[in-house]
């Protein structure tokens, strides 16, 4: 089918610069970041203003087209990828990337939704403040995508998920209505808190065009350490000890197994000599905005206690910024290490903190029964009860075929274990297209019914990101 008339109509609406119809330039937008799925789209639209987003939505509805909102396209679950019908256009927010305002006394930053996360971090830092959202994809993911996925990352243990950082939102609904709720208020009990509908709903309820984020004081001091864990070290008890003794200054508690560390150090040009003990390793960080606290001294004392407990074989305190950066580089390079090897089947497991060890024990036994030679890369945000329990794709096999096989068998067994511990199959990566069947399988029936009602109320004709997250009430409406 030719879409020439549609393309011209969008050009008339938002100008030549906002409409990409060259298939070669469209291609990077129609494949997910792990290259597991390729959809199709006849155009990528790049609006420059919120009224243009509203105009696009209205025209798409008149033309019977669907819309997939896209930020940096770093989603791990195909949330930003169109289906294969060809009738979904991609609305990329990348031209809407401005910092609207920093208010140092309210400690907020107001941004366009297409702003890249590092740009917003840098703007906050220039004002002496911290945007406490940090993840491996921060150089390419965009605030609208972070909101769409309710991104987590590396400092959730102190600052919470994206949801905890959002004070206000501007969004376009499926009929073109603009919700202007760019408030800086900490307190605002004036009825339904509608912004939460857009956070974590993966572009299915509205297109976020702007946001107000809460900032924190910039850390003046940080203390960072690498812990080599003894065999059988109890992660949760260790976390409790560090949390209790670090005077609420704990910002990071990241777990890594030796296999994950090796994947990262294989990629890093001059890797530091940090490694894992038999129980793995922990990257721990304390931060404070006060100049008056001796964080190194505090962390040293905490680590001394941990070593005494025999849970930690060795602990290294970063002596300067470059040692700290080297430790962080190892943690942050693990996903790239997995990718370079031949990728991984990712399991973004969430369990109550108290069940972390049970999950590791039960999952380990399950993997051994499934295939003794399977290689795992296990790491993650243990401080948040979130493990990345990834199965490495062997170097010499077809990545997609292997992923499908594991996802149809072992993955479900792992999710069953998580569910049996009152946990879930997606901690921070979302549902997207890839995990929709898991939501159907593991989701509470009442909660799913409520989600469908919300979807139907916000988007009765299933215009927005149809095929992701949840079906509306009428399954016939699926785009
Ligand atoms: P996209 O991938 O473009 O979109 C994600 C979803 O949001 C889609 O459903 C899309 O439709 C929707 N969306 C995008 N923009 C909008 C908008 N303006 N309005 C409404 N909906 C929108 N995630 C974590 O949570 N924690 C991590 O630690 C983490 N680490 C990562 C490390 C690497 C190396 C990579 C590649 C990814 C990582 N991720 C992580 C996953 C990913 O980066 C996050 O989900 C991120 O928030 C996605 O942002 P994005 O701009 O790329 O969104
Ligand atoms: C991370 O924490 O590094 C990512 O969320 C997990 C991944 O990339 O697999
Ligand atoms: Zn993560």
Brief overview:
The chain is of the alpha+beta class. The chain has 16 helices and 19 strands.
Characterise this structure.
With 479 residues, the chain is an alpha+beta fold. The chain folds into five domains: 3-92, 2-Layer Sandwich (Uridine Diphospho-n-acetylenolpyruvylglucosamine Reductase, domain 2); 99-217, Uridine Diphospho-n-acetylenolpyruvylglucosamine Reductase, domain 3 (2-Layer Sandwich), CATH 3.30.465; 221-330, Alpha-Beta Plaits (2-Layer Sandwich), CATH 3.30.70.2190; 342-430, Alpha-Beta Plaits; 435-477. It has 16 helices and 19 strands. The chain has helices at residues 4-14, 23-30, 50-63, 117-126, 143-149, 156-159, 195-198, 235-245, 258-267, 295-308, 321-341, 356-370, 399-407, 410-420, 436-442, 445-458, and strands spanning 19-20, 44-45, 66-70, 88-92, 99-103, 108-112, 129-130, 166-172, 178-181, 207-214, 216-217, 221-229, 250-256, 281-288, 312-317, 344-345, 348-350, 376-381, 386-392. Strands 12, 13, 14, 15, 16, 17, 18 and 19 form an eight-stranded antiparallel β-sheet that branches. A hairpin with a 5-residue loop joins strand 8 and strand 9. Helix 8 (235-245) packs antiparallel against helix 10 (295-308) and helix 9 (258-267) packs across helix 11. It is globular, with a radius of gyration of 23 Å. Bound molecules: flavin-adenine dinucleotide, D-malate (MLT) and zinc ion.
């Amino acid at each position: 089918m030719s879409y020439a008339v549609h393309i011209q109509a969008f050009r008339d609406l938002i100008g030549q610069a906002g409409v990409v119809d060259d298939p070669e330039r469209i291609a990077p937008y129609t494949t997910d970041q792990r290259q597991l799925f390729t959809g199709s789209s006849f155009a990528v639209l790049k609006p420059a203003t919120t009224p243009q987003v509203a105009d696009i939505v209205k025209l798409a509805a008149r033309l019977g087209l669907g819309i997939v909102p896209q930020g940096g396209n770093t989603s791990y679950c195909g949330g930003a990828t169109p289906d294969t019908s060809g009738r979904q256009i991609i609305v990329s927010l990348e031209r809407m990337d401005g910092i609207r305002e920093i208010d140092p006394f309210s400690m907020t930053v107001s941004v366009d939704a297409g702003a890249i996360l590092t740009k917003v971090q840098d703007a906050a830092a220039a004002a002496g403040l911290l945007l406490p959202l940090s993840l491996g994809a921060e150089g390419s993911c965009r605030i609208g995508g972070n909101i769409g996925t309710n991104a987590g990352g590396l400092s959730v243990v102190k600052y919470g998920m994206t949801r905890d950082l959002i004070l206000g939102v501007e969004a376009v609904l499926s009929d073109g209505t603009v919700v202007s709720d760019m408030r800086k208020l900490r307190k605002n009990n004036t009825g339904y808190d509608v912004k939460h509908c857009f956070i974590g709903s993966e572009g299915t309820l509205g297109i976020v065009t702007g946001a107000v984020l809460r900032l924190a004081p910039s850390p003046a001091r940080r203390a960072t350490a690498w812990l080599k864990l003894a065999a059988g070290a109890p992660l949760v008890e260790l976390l409790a000890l560090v949390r209790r003794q670090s005077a609420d200054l704990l910002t990071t508690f990241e777990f890594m197994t030796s296999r994950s560390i090796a994947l990262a150090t294989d990629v890093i040009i001059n890797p530091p000599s940090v490694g894992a003990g038999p129980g793995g390793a922990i990257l721990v960080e304390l931060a404070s905005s006060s100049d008056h606290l001796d964080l190194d001294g505090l962390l040293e004392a905490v680590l001394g206690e941990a070593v005494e407990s025999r849970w930690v074989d060795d602990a290294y305190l970063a002596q300067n910024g470059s040692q700290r950066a080297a430790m962080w580089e190892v943690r942050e390079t693990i996903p790239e290490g997995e990718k370079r090897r031949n990728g991984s089947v990712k399991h973004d497991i969430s369990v109550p903190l108290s069940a972390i060890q049970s999950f590791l024990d039960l999952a380990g036994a399950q993997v051994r029964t499934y295939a003794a030679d399977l290689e795992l890369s296990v790491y993650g945000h243990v401080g948040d009860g979130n493990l990345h329990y990834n199965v490495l794709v062997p170097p010499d096999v077809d990545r997609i075929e292997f992923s499908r096989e594991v996802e149809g068998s072992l993955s479900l067994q792992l999710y069953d274990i998580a569910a049996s511990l009152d946990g879930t199959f997606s901690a921070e990566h979302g549902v997207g297209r890839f995990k929709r069947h898991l939501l159907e399988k593991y989701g509470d029936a009442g909660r799913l019914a409520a989600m469908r009602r919300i979807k139907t109320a916000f988007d009765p004709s299933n215009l927005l990101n149809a095929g992701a997250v949840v079906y509306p009430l009428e399954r016939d409406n699926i785009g």
